[in-house]
Design goal:
- The chain is of the alpha+beta class.
- Helices cover 41% and strands 22% of the residues.
Length: 1067
């Protein structure tokens, strides 16, 4: 009966397959081709359809991006978790821009390499193996897609003697049994038919399916398999996951055998749509057409000749179509350019190409990202959902790149002048190249060889951030050689080894405990803390046994005496060691005969070092000690770390697009750095963030710690992950929610640090500062608990002081000098308190605004008082001058008057009080003698004007002079002496006054010539008057002379024919 049912089921499937339309050369859309693949495995072969994972590989530092469909199933292949499905199928977003799988340099130059592609994949997790996988693949290609079998070529693994791996003859026999012709089955080695996802990890032999796109003869086509031609290309790879690579020469068998197949959608679509290039399919052509529609100009013609102008332009079309897909997907999945240099490089290459070839800024990429979301949003809904985030990051990167070009342009031009061959490098590759090139040139000059050791290349990577692809381009242009195997080995060592970095932080005198053959330390940091329902914490002491003592000199010792500073290693520890941005615990060690102070704790390998100063007694190896935490330090650190998570959650809610850059948590305060991709983190945003955290504290939210496998943790809804961060296989996740274990989640992120159990234990929260931490970054510093309460109390005191001062100042319409002085002194003290004391940022901003208003009020009062003082002294000087024809006055301004509110001494206001005479005003300001000279226009002569009068003073006292902007120097001129350091201000003043007076008296007779000319004009007017009135010119002259402040000298007037007067003084 069961056999009959199986037969009927098989016949039903065959009937359905016969009804499938022939897709080969059918013109089916890429959407239909993708869905056919997914339906074939999901419906015909009972595979579970799973969504694509993010292209950001959280927890795997060996990858810049997810580069294969199997990445999300890595824990299953390693036996770290039980699969949810026995069989799976999906379409996975993949990006290959670095490492072993790097297609970046080939993008656009041929028709099938891409940075982003879709991997159609099917998996079996210890269910079926080679025979079923090959059979399903052959059935889909030849029966469903209707590809003629003679167009397909099969490769299999030919073995590797050095690794002891035999040829996969089982795979060859399976293909023969499926009807594949023997001359269409070819063996290849490790490079082509042994699949690995990276330097380490799951791997195994594979069998690839290649298609003869050009209809070549079999004898010719088989020679082109795996040769990188466009005539015969790989479309599907069937990986038989059997091994896990531990190192270059070590492979171990996996706990179970799995199947991982992957077929590039782009190549499959190109073949089924009968296109010579992937870019001619409906996956890319709409984007290419969009570039042309937006930019205009020469349309795309599909040229690949990079020696021709059209070929280069078409390359630019293809590059933008490819890069816009990759950029949109990466940004939508949460990648940030700051954390991923390859993403930034692709973005900048797209921006450079857009500017150079299409004269477009970021608006072109914005439009292309919109098109990508429209085309692919149905398959990957996150593209449409996060499109606004994509646009925000694109605009931000455009601004950053524009600034980078303006700042680095001059330096880069100088480098290109020295090394013209480097002009081929695009501007987006400049960071790190300048410094790296200089170091390489210095080394080459010193060594006299063009062979660069891999160790130097690795140093340039680790020191200057010079990536392998940039290094390759640099040395290629310079004609140098690099020991790349050594470079790759150093890179692998960095990724794979533990590299005990923390030992350097503990102190170079301490050696690794592993070399001492000491058992690993059992860490019980979280176990010693408990919380009562009313919020009181209890930290239990921990009994431990000393397993090693290391002296400050780095030697192992058996015993340490009072006063010694040593490193103590024990079998257990309750102290938190510095990690995750949180400082270590402090505390004490007690034993029967003494005690010691624990000042710092660090982890080195599997051991915990306690830096201890022995206070009393002696400490020996194997001694039993009691470990006691500094409870206040631990509790304050716990509160600050929980507050860090709450602040991040609040900022994410406000900004929508942000990422953590770093954090530093101490018992006193914490610092949180985050990415800012908008114009500013405004005061309103700061207020909202602080208010949100305070509300969560008031709500007494539960804080739980969950221990989860990494693959399960990263799949949690709403979890906050740090791009580029490496997470362990088992992750501690801190969950803040309205109820313990359930309810609305406020914050969810992996963290190994210590935390309170309830947000109410934070008691209070205050932001102290928000500062720039570099381009696109802000740094927030904040406090909690008693520190925050104390600062708020101090802020209230300052507010009361301000209110009192404001009320006092408002009682007076105008303040006297003594009142102004006293008020100014008080305001300066308050300003110093605001600038130097720890005050809540929002209160500081509020008080600064109020203080500025009061300072302005005092400054205005002081300015008015100064103006009154200057007016009084000038008017008094004019009155004392009497009949003199000019006025020279020195203003005696008390220095403390100028210090009030930093008032400005403006002499223009002083000269306005004497508009009818030439006047020179001098005063002492900031250690310099300053002056202003004003001469009425009618008093200017060829020998006397403001500039000439001032120059006689300037030449004598030193300094400089100039006319006010836009004014005639003959009428108005300013003086400023040199700094009077060694000179007596009184003597300089007297000298200036004396010289100015002598010069003015010497030219005083000129004033009378002006006066008589005025009389002549007046008399002419009188004689020509038709009103019949008579006037006395001499009287007018006498009045004018009186106005000028002098007696009329005895003169004789000689009348000329043109009714002019000659001015002749009588001796």
């Amino acid at each position: 009966m069961f056999n009959r049912l199986a037969l009927l089921t098989k016949l039903h499937r065959l009937r359905r397959l016969k009804k499938c339309a022939c897709l080969y050369h059918s013109g089916s859309s890429s959407k239909e081709i993708r869905e056919t693949f997914l339906d074939f495995f999901a419906k015909e072969h009972v595979h579970s359809r799973v969504p694509s994972s993010s292209v950001v590989p959280y927890g795997d530092p060996s990858l810049a991006f997810v580069n294969a469909g199997m990445n999300q199933f890595k824990p299953i292949f390693l036996g770290q978790t039980v699969p949810q499905h026995k069989r799976a199928v999906n379409s996975q977003k993949c990006i290959r821009v670095g490492g072993k799988h790097n297609d970046l340099d080939d993008v656009g130059r041929d028709g099938y390499h891409h940075t982003f592609f879709e991997m159609l994949g099917s998996w079996s997790f210890n269910d079926y193996f080679k025979k079923e996988a090959c059979s399903m693949a052959w059935q889909l290609l030849t029966q469903v897609y209707q590809i003629p079998p003679q167009k397909l070529f099969i490769t299999y693994f030919g073995g590797n003697q050095s690794l002891g791996l035999p040829s996969d003859e089982e795979c060859r026999e399976i293909w023969l049994s499926l009807g594949v012709a023997p001359d269409h089955i070819l063996p290849f080695g490790m490079k082509d038919n042994f699949w690995e996802m990276g330097l380490v990890g799951p791997c195994g032999p594979c069998s690839e399916i290649h298609v003869n796109k050009a209809n070549l003869e079999t004898s010719l086509a088989r020679t082109l398999v795996n040769q990188g031609t466009e005539e015969v290309v790989e479309i599907w790879n069937l990986v038989f996951m059997q091994y896990n690579r531990i190192s270059n020469q070590v492979l171990e068998k996996l706990p179970a055998h799995h199947i991982d197949t992957g077929m590039g959608l782009e190549r499959l679509v190109a073949f089924l749509q009968n296109k010579n290039s992937n870019y001619d399919t409906d996956l890319f052509l709409p984007l290419i057409n969009a570039v042309h529609q937006i930019s205009g100009g020469v349309p795309y013609q599909g040229c690949y000749d990079m020696q021709s102008g059209q070929g280069q332009r078409d390359w630019a079309y293809r590059l933008l179509a490819d890069h816009s897909r990759m950029i949109t997907v990466a940004l939508a999945d949460g990648a940030f350019p700051d954390n991923n240099h390859r993403l930034r490089r692709v973005m900048r290459q797209a921006m450079v190409t857009s500017r150079k070839w299409f004269n477009q800024d970021a608006s072109l990429l914005l439009e292309l990202s919109q098109r990508v979301a429209d085309m692919m949003g149905g398959v990957y809904p996150e593209l449409s959902r996060n499109l606004s985030n994509v646009h925000m990051l694109l605009r931000f990167e455009e601004d950053v790149f524009r600034d980078h070009l303006s700042k680095s342009g001059r330096e880069w031009s100088a480098i290109v002048n020295r090394f013209p061959e480097l002009s081929a490098l695009s501007t987006d590759q400049q960071p790190g190249l300048i410094a790296g090139l200089r170091q390489l040139e210095d080394w080459r000059r010193f060594s006299g060889t063009d062979n660069i050791p891999g160790s130097l290349a690795f140093k340039l990577y680790s020191t200057h951030g010079l990536q392998e692809d940039s290094l390759q381009l640099l040395v290629q242009l310079k004609g140098w050689n690099v020991d790349w195997p050594q470079f790759h080995q150093l890179m692998a060592d960095e990724r794979m080894s533990t590299k005990i970095q923390s030992s350097a932080a503990v102190g170079s005198q301490f050696q690794c405990a592993a070399a001492l053959k000491v058992a690993p330390t059992i860490w019980q940091c979280q176990d010693v803390c408990s919380r009562h329902s009313e919020g009181h914490y209890i930290f239990k002491p921990l009994d431990a046994t000393v397993t090693a003592l290391i002296s400050k000199g780095g030697c192992t010792i058996k015993e340490a005496a009072a006063g010694d500073q040593i490193a103590v290693i024990a079998d257990k520890s309750c102290f938190y060691y510095e990690a995750g941005g949180q400082v270590s615990d402090t505390g004490r060690l007690f034993w029967s005969t003494g005690s010691g102070l624990v000042e710092e704790v660090r982890r080195v390998g599997d051991h915990i070092y306690h830096l201890v100063t022995i206070n009393e007694g002696s400490l020996r190896v194997d001694q039993t000690v009691q470990m006691m935490l500094d409870e206040d330090n631990r509790l304050n650190t716990m509160a600050n770390h929980t507050a860090t998570h709450l602040l991040q959650a609040a900022i994410k809610d406000i900004l929508k697009v942000t990422c953590q850059k770093s954090s530093h948590v101490t018992p006193e305060h914490f610092r949180f750095d985050f990415g800012l991709f908008t114009s500013e983190f405004t005061l309103e945003m700061i207020t909202q963030a602080e208010s949100t955290v305070r509300n969560w504290i008031c709500q007494s939210l539960a804080v739980d710690r969950l221990m989860l496998p990494l693959h399960q943790a990263v799949s949690l809804d709403g979890i906050t992950l740090v791009p580029g961060e490496s997470y362990p296989d088992m992750v501690s996740v801190i969950r803040v929610a309205t109820e313990s274990g359930k309810g609305e989640v406020v914050s969810l992120e992996p963290c190994c640090g210590t935390h309170v159990r309830n947000t109410a234990d934070l008691e209070e929260f205050v932001i102290l500062s928000v500062k720039s931490a570099g381009v696109g970054s802000r740094s927030v510093r904040a406090v909690t608990r008693s520190t925050a309460k104390q600062l708020l109390c101090r802020a209230d005191d300052l507010k009361r002081e301000f209110s009192l001062l404001e009320s006092v100042a408002n009682k007076f319409n105008s303040l006297q000098f003594s009142q102004l002085k006293e008020l100014d002194t008080t305001l300066k003290q308050l300003r110093e308190a605001i600038n130097n004391e720890e005050i809540p940022l929002l209160v500081c901003k509020e008080l600064s605004i109020r203080l500025s208003k009061m300072e302005s009020y005092v400054r205005q009062g002081a300015q008015e008082a100064l103006a009154r003082m200057m007016q009084h002294q000038v008017e008094l000087a004019v009155s004392d001058a009497g009949p003199a024809s000019f006025v020279i006055v020195y203003l005696s301004i008390p220095p403390e008057m100028l210090e009030i509110g930093r008032v400005k001494l403006s002499l223009i206001k002083a000269t306005r009080h004497c508009p009818h005479k030439p006047i020179l005003v001098l005063a002492l300001d900031d250690g310099c003698l300053i002056g202003r000279c004003t001469v009425p226009k009618e008093m200017v002569t060829g020998d006397f004007d403001a500039e000439k009068w001032s120059d006689c003073v300037i030449r004598a006292i030193g300094g400089s002079g100039s006319s006010p902007k836009g004014q005639d120097p003959k009428l108005n001129y300013n003086i400023r002496s040199r700094k009077l350091v060694n000179d007596s201000p009184d003597s300089v003043r007297q000298q200036a006054l004396s010289l100015a007076t002598q010069y003015a008296k010497k030219d005083e007779t000129c004033f009378w010539m002006v006066a008589m000319a005025t009389c002549r004009v007046q008399k002419r007017r009188e004689e020509r008057s038709k009103c019949g009135r008579t006037g006395d010119s001499t009287g007018i002259g006498r009045v004018l002379a009186n106005r000028l402040g002098g007696e009329s000298p005895s003169v004789s007037l000689r009348r000329s024919s043109d009714f002019n007067f000659d001015y002749v003084p009588v001796q």
